[in-house]
């Protein structure tokens, strides 16, 4: 009976040790999963910020393109005016 109690005691100690180790690994896994979710959310937020910046830059490019076209037209008109002025002088 004494030998059986020693075996059972040793078995319980081993099971408790394994259970503690499993619990530690479980907590580490939960922490890793939460970190992964956090990183994923940060990446999505960063992607949205970059997409907003791209849209803003596209609008700025379009505005500058239109302004450039307008200035080219103005330059052409002024050159034409200068030519007409010189011819009639």
UniProtKB/TrEMBL annotation:
InterPro entries: FT20
One of the Pfam families matching this protein, by short name: IFT20
Annotated GO biological process: cilium assembly; protein localization to cilium
Superkingdom, natural source: Eukaryota
UniProt feature coiled coil, ranges: 36-74
Places the protein is found: Cell projection, Cilium
Keyword set, alphabetical order: Cell projection, Coiled coil
GO cellular component, one term: non-motile cilium
PANTHER family named in the record: INTRAFLAGELLAR TRANSPORT PROTEIN 20 HOMOLOG
Protein's name in the database: IFT20
């Amino acid at each position: 009976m004494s030998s059986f109690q020693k075996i059972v005691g040793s078995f319980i100690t081993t099971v408790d040790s394994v259970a503690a180790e499993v619990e530690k690994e479980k907590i580490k896994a939960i922490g890793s999963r939460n970190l992964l979710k956090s990183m994923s959310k940060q990446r999505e937020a960063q992607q949205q910020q970059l997409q907003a910046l791209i849209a803003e830059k596209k609008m700025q490019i379009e505005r500058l393109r239109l302004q450039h076209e307008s200035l080219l037209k103005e330059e052409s008109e002024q050159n034409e005016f200068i030519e007409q002025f010189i011819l009639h002088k």
